[in-house]
Amino acid sequence: MSRIMVTGGAGFIGTTLVRALLARGDEVVVIDDLSRPGSTERLDATRQLGGALHTEIGDIVDGDFVRAAFGRHCEAAPLDAVYHLAAQVAVTWSMEDPARDFAVNALGSFHVIEAARRFCPKARCLYMSSNKVYGGLEDLGFEPDPAGDRLRLIGMPEGIGNDRPFDPQTPYGVSKGTGEAYFRDAARTWGMETVVLRASCIYGPRQSQQEDQGWVAWFGKAVTEGLPLRIFGDGKTTRDMLFVDDLVDLYLRIVDGPAPTVGCTLNVGGSAASSRSLLEVVRALERLSGKTANMSFLDERSGDQKVFVTDVSATTAAYGWAPTTGPEVGLKRLLGID
To answer: What is the tally of structural domains in the chain?
Structure first.
């Protein structure tokens, strides 16, 4: 049995991870401020599963709270791993309130890795970053993909790899980049075992259904309930879709696997095989639900990457991992069909 802390453990990804950890007999400490819609309900449902689950309700922006939580749960024995998933998660919200975005993603991440260094310096620490640290990708060309009604990057059939220059844009990209820099430096300066994952489009059951974040789940809700569905741009914006269970599989491989390289930073996404455009996702949801989307088209939004497809070859090499759930199966599970 391992002792593991999950910040943001009542969120969509965090809940899925916590359930997997409890199922295999681990002792889990969840830190969450329960501010996201559905967080309280997700946490209550997780508690019903039983197992060694502890909760610390508070905001990671509060350094005293973070230090106290780590201190309490490391008093008897240090933690074996820390998954730092708590975050402000939307580009649009970061532009509306950049100060709060900075406080959560940059300062909050600093508090978490500093508390880990102080109380459990040998714990393996994972930080969930974002593909937004690569910026707008304006220098890359794209073209229609003959495989579907989507776009592909010219000359990059496998997508964007770890060698892509770090170029965060928007307050969200900058704050996530700052947080990951603290985790990478903890490995270099303090000798801690850290892994940074730069994630693409994660989706699945229990995801918040909001227009500004978790767009696949929002599309599912809008299509099945006949709600107005706004498409920004021509609908051919393309992402590689990663089902949440595949992401959690990688999380477990990281905590159970060999020590990471110093400053380990890896891309994680659905890969080129799971790339789909907004329009393709809408059409798939229409087929699966038997409903017709109530769509309207608006101008593209500032800060949106027109195409992002993840090259996961470095992640595969490091952990023997690859996504296994294609969009057709994943969307069925999202809708509760399969």
So the answer is: 1
